[in-house]
Structures are given as C-alpha cells and as structure tokens.
Design goal:
With 85 residues, the protein is an all-alpha fold. The chain has 1 helix and no strands.
Amino acid sequence: YTYLESDTNLDFLAGEASITKYNAGAGTGDVSKSGRMAMFATEVKPYANLCGLFAIGADENTEAHKADLLAALKRAAKSSSPSFD
C-alpha cells in the first residue's frame, strides 16, 4: 500500500469514520468528546487511516494462516463489532 500525494484523504467515505483526536483535520474544532461521524473529507487529516489496516509478516502470508486469521477476525467481530474510529 502506498499513498498518493494529496491535500485530502483519498480513502474518505462520508459517515464511515468517527472523528477522533488522532484523525481530525485542522479547523475541525474540539473533538475530545465528539464521537460524531466525519461527513466531509476536510474534517479528517489527508493521510489518516480511516478504513483500517491489517498487516502480516511475509512468513505468515500462507493460505492456511490467512484462513486461520480470517476465522479469528470473524469470531472477534461477533463478540465486539468493528469500530470505525
């Protein structure tokens, strides 16, 4: 994965990510207790990771291991739904 140079977040989708102190764009205001969803790309930093990232090492990149990881992720999602913040 690489980033394209941009002044706005190219992965942004309205209503998909909570505004937090870590991803809030300049001028968004006090977000310490916000919890609201970002509706405009200008509300988040250009390179904030909004969609999540799951990375594994090269030695773990086998079909069997990826199947095990996917099963574990699905079990975790059942007990605690993903949070897009």
